[in-house]
Amino acid sequence: MELSEIYDLGRRVRENVKKVIVGKDEVIDQLLTAMLASGHVLLEDVPGTGKTLLAKALARSLNTEFARVQFTPDLLPTDVSGVNIYDMKRSEFEFRPGPVFTHVLLADEINRATPRTQSVLLECMEERQVTIDGVTRRLEQPFLVIATQNPLENQGTFPLPEAQLDRFMLKVAMGYPDSAESVEILKRFRAEDPLETLRPVAEAAEIRAAQASYTKVTVDDDLYAYIVALAEETRRDPELLGGVSPRGCLSMLRAAQARAVLAGRGYVSPDDIKALAVPVWAHRVLPARRGGAFERVAEKAVLRIVNAVPVPTEAPAALQGRG
After folding, report:
1. C-alpha–C-alpha distance, residues 211 and 38, integer Å
2. DSSP codes of every residue in 260-315
3. Among 181, 215, 249, residue at a domain's last position
4. Does the predicted model carry a pTM greater than 0.90?
5. Are 30 and 129 in a shared domain?
6. Which CATH number characterizes residue 134's domain?
7. Does 290 lie in the same domain as 195?
8. Quick count: other Cβ atoms within 10 Å of Cβ 88?
9. 157 and 46 share a domain?
């Protein structure tokens, strides 16, 4: 698939999602970035800000299989992955696949489940497979996990462990709408739910082709060094106990390439990396200070580092990509 075709695919899906979601263009683009780069997204904000609605709108825009799991404290790992059930008539075990065997999985309020159930997604998200009773089953591509979580200050939440957070390519906050957007939401949903009339605009085969082709986007050597320099600064920062890992650097590279092609460019610019620094890295670093401002410390540290590290000038390869 050519880069121009990937751009057109992203435009179609974006415009379709915007028929339901009001005023969250950047958040929509971040979801599309993760989808194109075969990553996963963690949506965090207070209840009622449209996290589940956004995930459903994206899923309905794709002609793919969709499954939703409401995470609760009594949810078992097998409720997500599936289970072997003994068939008395045939005297053998039969595998009953769980909701994870889909293309788009909405893990709603993931931090309301216990760590044991949360961890069942680790293998699924990283290796695109599920191992049950010693048998490994591959998950069909594309496979996108969109997880929502409530802020940790809310009652009845279990913080996601660092290993789980690291599997999410981006962590995105919805935020409250402004006054004009709030009025538009009331008008749009006054008579009916626009989600009910939303139709797919992209096929699974198109998504797979785009995921296999987006890495054609040019990345100059200076930008590889820029990503590494930023990551190394997070490891040296006194306010952070742990910095960005090599996997975090790879996630940044892939996300930057996806963001570039979705913007209609055939090359990555420093602005792509700067714009993605917080959503790709803030949830991967470990602040030295804990407490209610835990996540805000991480975001501020990443932003401070981005502002401090010199930005490379556009290289000749990037300028040629404009044509």
Report:
1. 7
2. HHHTT-SB--HHHHHHHHHHHHTTTSEESS-STTHHHHHHHHHHHHHHHSPPPPPP
3. 215
4. no
5. yes
6. 3.40.50.300
7. no
8. 7
9. yes
Instruction: Quickly count: other Cβ atoms within 10 Å of residue 48's Cβ.
Output: 10
d(CA 169, CA 211): 15
Q: Does 149 share its domain with 35?
A: yes
Two tokens, residue 224: 């590889």
pLDDT for 135-148, tens place per residue? 889 999 999 999 98
- Same domain for 298 and 184? no
Q: Are 267 and 220 in contact (CB under 8 A)?
A: yes
From its phi and psi, is residue 129 left (phi > 0), alpha (psi between -120 and 50) or beta?
Answer: beta
Which distant-in-sequence residues (6+ apart) come within 8 Å of 119 by Cβ?
77, 161, 164
Report the percent of the chain where pLDDT is more than 70: 93
Which pairs with CB-CB distance under 8 Å and at least 24 residues apart come from 306-313? 306/230, 306/274, 306/277, 308/233, 309/226, 309/229, 309/230, 309/233, 311/226, 311/270, 311/274, 312/220, 312/222, 312/223, 312/225, 312/226, 312/270, 313/222
Q: How far apart are CA 95 and CA 255, in angstroms?
A: 36
Q: Is 90 within the bounds of a domain?
A: no
Q: Final residue of a domain: which of 191, 215, 239?
A: 215
Q: Are residues 205 and 251 in the same domain?
A: no
Q: How far apart are CA 313 and CA 316, in angstroms?
A: 10
How far, in Å, CA of 112 to CA of 236, rounded?
33
Whether 231 and 183 map to the same domain: the answer is no
Domain assignment present for residue 96? The answer is no
**Tokens for 107?**
């893990």
pLDDT confidence bin for 47, thresholds 50/70/90 = confident
Residue with tokens 């709603």: 108
Q: How many domains does the chain have?
A: 2
Count of other CB atoms within 10 angstroms of residue 17: 26
Per the structure, the complete domain to which residue 254 belongs is given by: 217-323
As to burial, measured by CB atoms within 10 angstroms (0-12 exposed, 13-18 middle, 19+ buried), residue 40 is buried
